[in-house]
Design a protein that fits this description.
Strand content: 5-15%
Structural class: alpha/beta
Radius of gyration: 22 Å
Shape: globular
Order of helices and strands: HHHEHEHEEEHEHEEHEHEHHHHHEHEEH
Helix content: 25-40%
Strand order of the largest sheet: 1-3-2-6-8-7-12-13-11-9-10
Number of helices: 16
Length: 584
């Protein structure tokens, strides 16, 4: 997996000199910049900085009881740090649209409520640190959308709906796009990312940007997920001493804690689905090419993609439909022609498990008895819903190609990041990976207090994408993950999908030693570039665990149908309780 770390969350509300004019923009600019997205665990420490971090972790943290519904064993009693009821708790896109349609609320008043929630929970106690920057234009954009609704009706299901996007997605407005790095602080792209453009076209209100594992966790082999030099440490709302996973940690936490209706994350390997499972929400990692990567800070074009994060499968399906589309700047999207949809809600079927053939990838079980217990219960629920379970299916272990995966990512990261930086324009602070490496060394105390930049250094040493070693590794990845992997299993057993535990429950955040990732199933669909959906499957000791559905390319409709049916049968989603810790 791939992720990162930081100290203070920055909120900007004033005028930015890079922005010309004060009028809200309802339509996106027509041009875009090229790029992509990802996550990997990490570790490094300076003792004095660690002590400062421990102090920081205690600032504004009130204790609380974790949401223990569905737990096999309840956590020990602790003081309550729950900030109390919120008007929009667990409200769906449909709920918010009904409120706006009836006149009970407006897009502006909804945005105001979420901004107040962010101020209370994210910046004060329990201080989740999930939002790195507020959009200073959010309220004026929402007000303009209210006027448009009155004049001509809503554009669609996202009209007036607040959305948070990860801070590696370009917006040509008054917000920076930094991937959590101090090196890019203040960087204003010349064009919106295609994803941001599509959200604006749909009438969404981009409320702000979420914190993340810095550089999508592709900086060090010893990182702490959820930390960025610019944004600080994101905390899990179910237990504040637990890790939110990454690299879309801020997006996952913000949605789980009801700081926004939905959010956009990005993934190279695990960066959407891991924070989704760790924070008790739904995450969709689409087929590579279904969603454009232009204008997204890249890791590797063979695996990067953006995708929805939401509290329900329905909301995730709505958001996915809004961001699909062919983008001439991202050639991979041409493959989606005739295979994508602008509305995935038509595939929501509460009886969708009936007759479905589902394979169980047992090689991704066994790392946790508690997780295995939850998966066994999930499989029984699917059987009761009429699914045909093929158990086990012989899917190759990702260990067989983990070395070649990293080799491909190192080569592509150097090439893709240098292209992204070169296209930021003359005002960009840096224009190459080498310059970023030098900046980090010169700002070691701020950027590398806990872990280094080993992956950056390894990537910088790589040659061009015509290198034989790169081409050999890429061929191996695709063969083992696709032709001899997911495709072979799906075809042999005539499956609709493969299931496995998404990951284990959230581990204790440890800035001294880095991540303690226990296991998971993100790698096969990530390396293949195939779709992957995770849905809440229950709790262990107050911590959520998700179940994964994945399949072959462009089978999002099938996976959405299965995931929705499972969600409706089980209803495992529970709002977080903001416990200070979970005692095991």
């Amino acid at each position: 997996m791939y992720e990162a770390n930081g100290l203070e969350t920055l909120f900007f509300s004033g005028y930015d000199p890079h922005f010309e004019g004060d009028e809200p923009r309802l339509s996106p600019v027509p041009e875009r910049v090229k790029s992509r997205r990802h996550v990997f665990p990490t570790k490094r420490v300076v003792h004095n900085e660690l002590m400062n971090r421990r102090r920081f972790l205690q600032i504004g943290v009130l204790s609380g009881a974790a949401a223990a519904a569905g737990c096999s064993t309840a956590p020990s009693a602790v003081e309550n740090s729950n900030p109390g009821p919120f008007d929009l708790d667990e409200k769906t896109i449909g709920d918010l649209q009904e409120m706006m349609k009836s006149g009970r609320l407006s897009a502006r008043s909804i945005a105001e409520k979420y901004l107040a929630r962010i101020e209370t929970i994210d910046r004060q106690g329990p201080r989740l640190n999930s939002v790195i920057e507020i959009n200073p234009e959010a309220l004026s954009i929402a007000a303009a959308l209210d006027d448009q609704r009155k004049a001509g009706g809503a554009r669609g299901p996202l009209h007036g709906i607040p959305v948070l996007i990860k801070d590696n997605i370009d917006t040509a407005d008054r917000m920076s796009t930094t991937a959590g790095s101090l090196a890019l602080q203040g960087s204003i792209p010349q064009r919106d990312a295609f994803v941001a453009q599509k959200l604006r076209e749909a009438g969404a209100v981009i409320l702000g940007k979420t914190n993340l594992s810095e550089w999508a966790n592709f900086r060090s082999t010893h990182s702490t997920s959820g930390w960025s030099g610019r944004g600080g440490l994101v905390r899990n709302p179910y237990a504040l001493n637990r890790n939110p996973c990454g690299s879309s940690s801020g997006s996952g936490v913000a949605v789980a804690a009801n700081l926004s209706a939905v959010a956009i994350g990005t993934e190279t390997d695990g960066s959407i689905v891991c924070p989704a499972t760790a924070n008790g929400i739904v995450g969709i990692k689409p087929t590579v090419g279904l969603v454009s990567r232009s204008g997204i800070v890249p890791i590797a074009h063979s695996q990067d993609t953006a995708g929805p994060m939401a509290r329900t499968v329905t909301d995730a399906a709505i958001l996915l439909g809004a961001i699909t589309g062919i983008d001439p700047i991202d050639p991979a999207t041409r493959e989606s022609e005739g295979k994508s949809f602008t509305d995935y809600t038509g595939f929501l079927d509460a009886n969708g498990l009936s007759g479905a053939r589902i394979g169980v990838a047992r090689k991704f079980f066994g790392f946790s008895d508690e997780v295995d217990r939850l998966m066994a219960a999930a499989i029984e629920e699917m059987k009761r819903a009429g699914a045909v379970i093929i158990d086990p299916v012989n899917l190759a272990e990702s260990k067989e190609y983990e070395d070649s995966e990293l080799e491909v990512l190192l080569y592509e990261f150097k090439d893709n990041l240098n292209k992204y930086l070169s296209e930021l324009g003359p005002k960009a602070p840096f224009h190459s990976l080498k310059e970023i490496i030098d900046f980090n060394e010169k700002n070691h105390e701020r950027e590398m207090p806990y872990f280094g930049q080993e992956l950056f250094l390894k990537a910088e040493a790589k040659g061009p994408l015509t290198t034989a070693d790169y081409l050999k590794a890429l061929e191996k990845d695709r063969r083992l993950s696709r032709r001899e992997g997911i495709d072979a299993v799906i075809e042999k057993d005539h499956l609709d999908a493969i299931i496995a535990p998404t990951a284990g429950p959230a581990w204790t955040t440890d800035l001294l030693n880095g991540d303690h990732f226990t296991g998971g199933s993100s790698t096969p669909p990530a390396v293949a570039g195939y779709p992957h959906i995770t849905v809440p499957a229950g709790f262990t000791r107050g911590l959520p665990v998700g179940i994964s559905f994945f399949g072959t390319a462009y089978t999002e409709p099938v996976l959405i149908r299965l995931a929705y049916a499972f969600e409706q049968k089980t209803k495992h989603r529970r709002a977080p309780g903001f416990s200070r810790e979970v005692d095991i």
